[in-house]
Amino acid sequence: MDEPVTQGNEGREAAVASLADRLPTPLRPLARIAYNYRWSWLPGGHDLFARLDVDRWRRVDRNPVRALIEATPAALAEAAADTAYVAEVDRIAAALAADLARAPAEVDGVGPSAPIAYVCAEFGIHPSLPIYSGGLGVLAGDICKEASDLALPFVGVGLFYRRGYFHQRVNLAGWQQEYWTEVDPDLLPAAPVLADDGSPLEIHVPLWDRQVTVRAWRVDVGRVPLFLLDSDVAGNDPADRWITARLYDANRDVRLAQYTVLGLGSVRILRAMGIEPGLVHLNEGHGALSVLELATDGTDGADAAGLDLDAAVAASRDRVVFTTHTPVAAGNETYEPWRIVTVLEQLPGRFGSDPRALLSLGRVDPEEHESEAGMTPLALRAARHVNAVSRRHGEVARGMWAPLFGTDAADTPIGHVTNGVHLPTWMAPSIRALLDRHLGEDWTRRADDRATWEPVLDIPDAELWEARRAARHRLIDYVKDRIATDRLARGEDIAYAQRAVRALDPDALTLGFARRVASYKRLYLLRHDVERALKLLDGPSPAQLLFAGKAHPADDGAKGILKSMFDLRGASHVADRIVFLEDYGMTSGSMLTGGCDVWLNVPRPPLEASGTSGMKSALSGGLNLSVADGWWDEAYDGTNGWTISGAEDPDHATQDQRHANELYELLERQVVPLWAKRDADGVPVGWCRMVKASLVTVGPRFSATRMMRDYVETVYRS
Questions:
Q1: Class of domain 423-698
Q2: Rg for the chain (alpha carbons), in Å?
Q3: Sequence-distant (≥ 6) Cβ neighbours of residue 160 within 8 angstroms
């Protein structure tokens, strides 16, 4: 089979062959399909594996490798004897092969032998690969998928977290508790990268006073290979084996070591496979040390050919671009000078420099010798092009980082490429089927063209409404299936566990809020006026609220916000229509954005860099009610949803009061009445008109297709 990047695929080929040997001959193509996540956005791909055993498919988080390994002989024999099923296996196998065989897109300065290397600390490819925490990783996954769809010469590099991000439980008091589970890489669609002699390929990364051995796993995302670095290697010190255990580990030394492995290791592992990056795209600053490794001759551990640190940064600049994702301090973490000097003890010596030079690269003001340093300033200094992730975030970032560049805010060299989302991944199935009927063949490949979406305006209201009802019913069925179990698991009584199952209505106005629980996201505004909020749930057109989100394990303030929502449980009989879904992730996120009628988003402006959950909701026919910040600041046009003022206000208490009032006013006076107004057939014609306006305006401007074409034209080719 032809494929764009063959380096590091020997281990995958062995894994595919081993899995195929377990299967009846007619089903053996399933093994190759299982080892490439392209199945997850091919029409029919999900059903191909679910058909073997629906319950098991859910239990294994839709992991196709585990699903095939654990399938019973009887299930496999039955499937192999089903000619229609075998024909579907062959169809999807052929579609995968054809996709991999496409000619690569032409982009100046990069190509199959010198691809774009996309370096990120997390990747949200699929729920079965738990190496993501939230928006940053999910965006990285969408970028990899869209790069595959556009046939860009592209590879991803990240870290393989055997314990991933934490899982969430909420106790009877409403307090979040965390736990981690370890994954077995041999049961994932991942394969070890091998050396020429068939042993695992190894590189070494200098940390503290020693060399840490690192191996890599290859995960295929369509045409894009994702290489994941792993320090859990026999022979490493136990502490070194822990480096890549958990995403965003609470230990600051471990996090700094993670970013060193990611930065230095990303370039080293690619070169060890014979891949020389034509361009390195840093998605957030975590992998910024890669710019120093680019300046070396590629020899593992060798000195940098006489370059000092400043010269190394200058030598790499033409091959580095950087996307900054947030103005929030937690996303631009800094470290005490002594910690950096300790963890990166060996690095300055490779460049004939002392630690002060390294610390200066990581400071806004290199002359402030006592201040902390971090990866974001290094990335800003090292990149030929820097972009924020929305128009407004660009303005904020220019003001924030002007002191580093020594410019006025207006002249700070930071542009923006507004985020977008991967349509085939996030669109609700009923809406995708509707648009497939009305927008023409291969319409998703033209998703960035408004003309592609214009036929939406001619879709009969009744047909659009039926597709939206199907999406909502799918969501409510999912929630009902989960909610009693969630409540019983935390010790609630049976009556309370069952009440939400009875109270949730698949035809009621469904409001959704699912974000990382951080103070600036302001989940607490939803209960700012409890009496008023509950009245919305119990009016002539009753609503229901579904929400989800994780607080960082170390953020007790955010945990308190989450707990305050649980305090509503006994406030009224209608509180049963307020449902929290535990352990927010890609599966529940997709169900919520796909099924909710109104997506609520109330961040404190201007701290929302972009946000993408509202885009996903809009693409499934949901409507946004959001503060005018991030992406919504440039998306709202008066016809496609509702907006709350995005003006800044240093008086946060007053701003909270004002924004909560605006939220309730919009819900009471505009959202609920528009929902309730029906024609003789029970169709809310005005609501459908707004849904169409939302699809036509949001679809072309906030798809990953538009985003990646912007990156190609304004960043990669600049």
A1: alpha beta
A2: 25
A3: 131, 185, 190, 216, 217, 228, 229, 230, 244
